[in-house]
Amino acid sequence: TDHSGTERLRERIAEVLTTARARTLGLTDVVDEAELVAQHSRLMSPLVWDLAHIGNQEELWLVRDVGGRDPVRADIDELYDAFKHARAKRPGLPLLNPSEARGYVGTVRDKVLDVLDSSALRGNRLVDGGFAFGMIAQHEQQHDETMLATHQLRTGAAVLAAPSAPAAAVAVSGEVIIPAGEFTMGTSTDPWALDNERPAHRVHVPAFAIDAAPVTNEQYLAFIDDGGYERPELWSERGWAHRTEAGLVAPQFWDRDPAGHWWRRVFGVMTPLRPRQPVLHVCWFEAEAYANWAGKRLPTEAEWEKAARYDPDTGAERRYPWGDAEPDSATANLGQRHLEPAEVGAYPAGASPAGVHQLIGDVWEWTSSGFEAYPGFRAFPYKEYSEVFFGGDYRVLRGGSFGTDPVACRGTFRNWDHPIRRQIFSGFRLARDLGRDEI
Ligand code: AVJ
Ligand code: FE
Q: What is the pTM of this model?
């Protein structure tokens, strides 16, 4: 019945909000007060800012807007408005201290669960299908991933632990050919899809080849050993300028010992480089140089999504490469179950019908595309989520990482960042045009 459908939706909303909050607290309870208010990198906010910002967005949308309730703390909106203060300036603000921030997010959450009990979950676009609640759960999880990146940047003893990510279960290599044709990109029906994923629209994609797996550490090392960082001809002009100015010689957090072995600092633990893991913490310019070296290119966003969602047998699009079922531990490395990408070949159950592996989870994958509106885009519910970034100096990333929660990841999901950024959990896979004889 309609009634039990609404009850199931309420339970699902309560569950995703609770999951997000457990993660938020797990990331903020493990460091002391001094570390919560410290700035671990000028690229990041103090963790205590993310914490209260999560609560403030939840208050704005769910307590005040959906619930029509009085503000909890109208006086702090300005402090937690991401557009008012650059990340580098946030430590200097009169922020809530850690215990105030914890109290604040708890008070907001109590009110939200009350609002959820009495909200119709239909009747206007903001609440239809639980959209605003889903948006806020995704927002919290996105900041949790950002806080996880802050943890990776912090120095000192390790405070996070998780089982190591699985090894290969099957051998995966080579590329998969995706024949020319139209597919439906984006969605108009996924109830929690964000504005930039909408609307669904037909796109013709010429035939192309895409790698069955992301580029691995071992493959990336061959690029380094072949002088990849010393050969300007492999880099674009902007890329080379950045490589020179930033002194790039390897992915972020890599270190070579005197014997020539490579190590990676993984959340405070020096770890021998795992050759078959997708390369992590590379910027778009590094991905571009590697692609030039390999004689290939990055996929466009449309190519990536077609490889991830289009089922050639039915001509229909899936939510994920493996179908419409929610991700689980057999299909994708998501949700901070592990603190690293899994080896290539670790998720055969997550492959697409055409045999493309690990599109979802492990590492965000850089595409060649800038962040632009789809035809028919309408900002919803606020311009500052997507619209203000369209046409800026961004590249789209797809697929989510080991640090992305399933609620904030699907075949249509779009992430974006500046091409120089690499503190995010970013890697890439390659694609290429097909020769005449291959089509
Ligand atoms: C979609 C990850 C680029 O973190 O800047 C968080 C998500 N938007 N709060 C970001 C977001 C507002 C956004 N990204
Ligand atoms: Fe935010």
A: 0.98
Q: How many CB atoms lie within 10 A of CB 123?
A: 9
Ligand closest to CA 50: 2
Alpha carbons 99 and 105: distance in angstroms, whole number:
10
**Spatial separation of the C-alpha atoms in residues 308 and 320, rounded to whole Å:** 6
Atom of ligand 1 lying closest to residue 143 CA: 6
Phi and psi at residue 370, to the nearest 5°: -75, 165
Averaged over 31-35, what is the pLDDT?
97
If we measure between CA atoms, which residue out of 16, 91, 13 comes closest to residue 50? 91
- Ligand 1, residues at Cβ distance < 6 Å: 139, 142-143, 146, 385, 415-416
> Distance from the CA of 142 to the center of ligand 1, in angstroms?
6
Tokens 């030039």 appear where?
292
Contact 198, 187 (CB under 8 A): yes
Ligand nearest to the CA of 58: 2
Q: Does residue 256 carry a pLDDT above 90? A: yes
Distance from the CA of 42 to the center of ligand 1, in angstroms?
17
Q: ipTM of this predicted complex? A: 0.99
pLDDT at 1: 65
Which residues, in sequence order, are CB contacts of 374 under 8 Å at separation 6+? 185, 186, 196, 197, 198, 199, 201
Distance (Å, whole) CA 266 – CA 83: 31
Q: What is the pLDDT of residues 396-407, one digit of tens each?
A: 999 999 999 999
Tokens representing 394 are: 């961004």
Average model confidence (pLDDT) across the chain: 97
